[in-house]
Amino acid sequence: MNSSDSGQNQSPFVVEAQIVGYCAANVAAVVIVAMIFFVTVFESYSSEEILQEPKFDIKNTLTSINKILLLMGLSVIVIEITNVIYVLGYPFSHIVMFSFVATFEVCYIAYSWKRSSEIFRYAFPQLFSLMKWAVWLSPFILYLQVIPQAIDFIQNPQWSIQPPATGAGPGAGPPPPGQPQNSPVGPPPPGNAGPNYFILFFPAASGCFSVLYDILFLYAFMYYIHKNRKNSEVDMKFQIISVYGAIACFFSLLTVVLYFLSFTGTTIDQSSKFYSSAFGALPMPFITLCFMKLATFWNQTNERSKMSELIRTRGKSRDFLRPQTTMKTQHSHISSVRSKSVQRSFSHLDQSLT
Q1: Residue 135: which of 150, 162, 115 has the closest Cα?
Q2: 41 within 8 A of 297, measured Cβ to Cβ
Q3: Maximum CA pair distance of the chain?
Q4: Which residue in 58, 218, 298, 330 has the most C-beta neighbors within 10 A?
Q5: C-alpha torsion sign, points 222, 226, 229, 234
Q6: What is the Cα–Cα distance from 2 to 224, expressed in whole angstroms?
Q7: Angle between helix 64-87 and helix 93-123 axes, rounded to 10 deg
């Protein structure tokens, strides 16, 4: 069977997943290239003092924040590509996909915590220590979802899906999550209590952890914005982080909700729409955090330029006042010398008269 026949036999779900996956992966790749360009051209220059000329320093490009963002973007690309491979009928890619889903979630939580921990402390001072421990334990919680995928594949090593009995042919791929199917790959059909429930439990637990994290941080961001909406002296850095952080939390929640809704669809069309929408929304938290980085950088640059301009202005005012001060000092010195000489003259005159 040639490739054209295979393409004709592909289900609408597979075609839709391919289009969404390739588009999302390309968008993430473009954002990664743009971020590398920005970090190399702009962020790599710094100076120890405000009035110093910025100098190139490679260490500025290798910060933990930049590494986390890069790994997060690469995870998006791998997730989208492996999902396309999965829907084409190769279930082994699910192990790789869930591994990078966990990596994406860990990077998202780590980046959010590094940027926003003080905002969380501001909103939830009592929960700060508990959330700090949760962030530290998040890799162990999130990577648990990979274990059942690996166990299931070891027990049922399927490198590709055989053509189903309906005659759909190669390339038709598995149906969307939650829908009945003629192959053992994917979630079981409704009412069929099989071992796949074990596979779904840990991703569901990881998803619940991510949802709870997003809800708490979304509240913290909105609380900070609400409390400081009329404060003219608010720190613009925290304000920017709160706005972009709230948007990132929204997209993260949307992705998780859409993915779990794909298991509840009553028809294949409903499930496929939810499933494809979830993977289409996946790059949005990463893109939002990149915009947060740009906004905080330009805010810091503007504050630095304002500070340097203020210092230069004060320096010029001192230079303008310095000659006048010197002239006054010289004039007072000359006057004192003259008065002393006049006093000596009068004293000599008194002595001569006596």
Answers
A1: 115
A2: no
A3: 142
A4: 218
A5: negative
A6: 59
A7: 140
**Residues 21 and 84 sit within 8 Å (Cβ to Cβ):** yes
Distance separating alpha carbons of residues 339 and 218, to the nearest angstrom: 77
Q: Is 130 exposed, middle or buried (0-12, 13-18, 19+ CB in 10 A)?
A: exposed
Chain-centre distance of CA 132, in angstroms? 18
What is the per-residue burial (b if ≥16 Cβ within 10 Å, else e) of 92-122?
A: bbbbbbbbbbbbbbbbbbbbbbebbbebbbb
Q: pLDDT band for 189, please (50, 70, 90 cuts).
A: very low
Render pLDDT for 264-274 as a digit per residue (tens, 0 to 9). 877 778 888 89
Residue from 321, 236, 313 nearest 51 by CA:
313
How far from 277 is each of 163, 188, 210, 253, 282, CA to CA, in Å? 26, 21, 18, 13, 9
Band the pLDDT of 353: cuts 50, 70, 90. very low
| SS3 annotation, 45-80 | EECCCCCCCCEECHHHHCCHHHHHHHHHHHHHHHHH
Query: Which tokens in the block code for residue 27?
Result: 């968008």
How long a stretch of residues is the chain? 354
Q: How confident is the model at residue 151 (pLDDT cuts 50, 70, 90)?
A: confident
DSSP 40: I
- Taking the whole predicted model, whether its pTM rises above 0.90 is answered as no
